[in-house]
Amino acid sequence: MKICFLGCGNITQAIIDGLLKSGISSSGIYCIERNEQRVESLRTQNLQTIELKDLASMDFDLILLAVKPKDALSAEQSIFKMAPAAAILSVVAGIGIEKYSQPNTIIRAMPNTACAFGKGVTAIYAADQSSAGFKNAKSLFSKIGHVLMLQSEDEMHRFTSVIGSGQAFLFQVLDIYLKELEKISTTNQAAAKSMFQDFISSLVDSFSQEQNFESLINKIKSPGGTTQAGLESLKKNNLEKILKDAFRAAEDRSIEISNEQ
């Protein structure tokens, strides 16, 4: 598969990292990027950088659009001027396909940065899910994680909130854990981070063995014990509402971005 990335920020880099680790050759990956520092970083990965005008003379299976939302619509129009038959895969948050000049040919996806480790979760949607472009998009993201095909584009807002933004919410919580651990292990911060890494890994191992959080919690807590006291504090402070409010805020912002264009 021959792919061109237009815009090479964090999510593009995560996708590229995952593809390279999956065995995809760098010779099939091209990038269009204006930021000189990013261009240099791409070249260190043996990736080829081209100009927008080069799309007129090159044939790509997918052109992945990964610019800022404010630049997405003009960028899409520029692509079609250069390559009218291009299959455009947009990973731009909040911009519905109906906003683009050629909505019936746009494939929309929302990946997360776990793609870099081959553990991404990506939602994809297109009006025509039988097209070669859509099949190529599904194949692309299957190489770097899980793919969820949506039946309605409206579902993308909720997916963006829970999976796209949700990683950052969990990182925020885990950052608090790490800082508390570092207070205990004040003399060796490297050791604290190593312990923390194993601590996080053990959570995944526990869930892989028993995929029921209530059961996992019950194995840790005891009536009247320290864990019970902490859990009651979380319930009193309504942790569930705090997280659900964060999901709702992210979803609402996704809808707002769509309406702003």
Secondary-structure blueprint of this entry?
Elements: E1 3-6, H1 10-21, E2 29-32, H2 36-44, E3 48-49, E4 62-65, H3 69-82, E5 88-90, E6 106-110, E7 120-126, H4 132-142, E8 145-149, H5 155-184, H6 189-209, H7 213-218, H8 226-236, H9 239-260
Parallel strand pairs: 1-2, 1-4, 2-3, 4-5, 5-6, 7-8
Antiparallel strand pairs: 6-7
Helix pairs in contact: 5-6, 5-9
Outline of the structure:
This protein has 261 residues and is an alpha/beta fold. Helices cover 52% and strands 13% of the residues.
List keywords for this structure.
single chain, alpha/beta, Rossmann fold, ProC C-terminal domain-like fold, 9 helices, globular
Q: What would you note in describing this structure?
A:
The protein has 261 residues and is α/β, with parallel strands linked by helices. It has 2 domains: 3-151, 3-Layer(aba) Sandwich (Rossmann fold), CATH 3.40.50; 160-258, Orthogonal Bundle (ProC C-terminal domain-like fold), CATH 1.10.3730. Helix content is 52%, strand content 13%. The chain has helices at 10-21, 36-44, 69-82, 132-142, 155-184, 189-209, 213-218, 226-236, 239-260, and strands at residues 3-6, 29-32, 48-49, 62-65, 88-90, 106-110, 120-126, 145-149. It has an 8-stranded mixed sheet with strand order 3-2-1-4-5-6-7-8, with helices on both faces. Strand 4, helix 3 (69-82) and strand 5 (88-90) form a beta-alpha-beta unit. Helix 5 (155-184) packs across helix 6 (189-209) and helix 5 (155-184) packs across helix 9 (239-260). The chain is globular. The two termini are 32 Å apart.
